[in-house]
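Supplementary Methods. Inverse-folding protocol.

Structures were first reduced to a discrete structure-token string of length 341. This string, shown here, constituted the complete conditioning input.
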């Protein structure tokens, strides 16, 4: 398994989808549903887009765990990366969410699947910070370099720097916070709309970091492992070019296959020379998701990567020691982790 590119993902198949009114104020990427399009038609279109993404990922050998969501009160549940992240060594993080109507997206069945299929040692739950008005929306708020152990984070009320530093202490990352704004001075609501870090390539809109010194520090830190940086423009960011994710699939022969998953809209915004650089290390997998993108997120937001070791298959029984660790995975710092699902 690649340190940066997970070979398994979690997707939420939401039966009811609609751009969330509670997040419209600070998500400059969010758009209204076209006039005259009925809610049922919007949901059907979004379901078809979710299924197309799952199919495209499976086709390149990525393991896909799909969870159905029949709760009609969760308009953004298709974006699980905001409440959940997983980490090498058997660690899982659960995050505090800014919009109150998103907080019941956290699901016990997702966590139980992780514990049953993967080796989970501890679940660190930060959701108890929500009553204090302190938020850190997972790998939306942070773009994680799992190789160099750096957490790149654009400051916003969805990304509290104090919680970022706490996360970094708990999980062994270096915090790298910065301001990022569009040409109108509007802060970027989530870091993962302007940056994507792969194993050998990073895509980022450095021009949206106004502090020149900090911009160069980010550039230098990203390239220290030899990564090639693809600089994105603000116009490309508005087309969701930064909201991509590298995954590790398998060829039919069983060889590793690195892919960069993004939306078809995002791929269309890339210049030929940018595509060439990306394809030196990854195959681009592009899926058309125009309905889901109305909610202000794209393919990266839809994917919660699984960076955990898989349990042995049925024909290779786990040791008693491993079973004891997994069955007693502790919850740290949480209120009631297994919230309404």
């Amino acid at each position: 398994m690649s340190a940066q590119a997970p070979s398994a993902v979690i997707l939420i198949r939401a039966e009811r989808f609609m751009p969330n009114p509670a997040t419209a104020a600070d998500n400059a990427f969010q758009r209204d549903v076209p006039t005259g399009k009925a809610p049922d038609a919007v949901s059907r279109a979004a379901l078809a887009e979710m299924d197309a993404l799952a199919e495209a990922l499976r086709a390149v050998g990525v393991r896909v765990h799909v969870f159905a969501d029949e709760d009609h009160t969760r308009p953004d549940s298709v974006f699980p990366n905001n409440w959940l992240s997983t980490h090498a060594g058997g660690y899982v993080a659960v995050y505090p969410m800014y919009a109150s109507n998103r907080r019941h997206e956290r699901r016990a069945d997702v966590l139980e699947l992780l514990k049953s299929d993967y080796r989970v040692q501890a679940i660190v739950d930060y959701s108890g910070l929500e009553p204090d008005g302190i938020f850190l929306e997972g790998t939306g708020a942070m773009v994680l370099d799992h190789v160099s152990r750096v957490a790149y984070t654009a400051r916003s009320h969805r990304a509290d720097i104090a919680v970022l530093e706490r996360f970094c202490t708990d999980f062994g990352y270096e915090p790298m916070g910065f301001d990022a704004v569009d040409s109108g001075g509007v802060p970027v609501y989530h870091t993962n709309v302007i940056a994507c870090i792969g194993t050998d390539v990073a895509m980022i809109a450095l021009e949206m970091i106004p502090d020149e010194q900090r911009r160069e520090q980010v550039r230098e830190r990203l390239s220290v492992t030899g990564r090639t940086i693809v600089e994105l423009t603000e116009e490309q960011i508005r087309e969701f070019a930064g909201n991509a994710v590298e995954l590790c699939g398998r060829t039919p022969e069983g060889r590793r296959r690195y892919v960069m998953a993004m939306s078809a809209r995002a791929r269309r915004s890339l210049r030929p020379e940018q595509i060439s650089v990306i394809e030196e290390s990854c195959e681009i997998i592009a899926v058309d998701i125009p309905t889901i993108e109305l909610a202000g997120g794209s393919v990266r937001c839809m994917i919660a990567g699984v960076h955990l070791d898989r349990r042995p298959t049925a024909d290779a029984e786990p040791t008693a020691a491993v079973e004891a660790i997994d069955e007693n995975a502790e919850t740290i710092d949480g209120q009631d982790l297994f919230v309404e699902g």
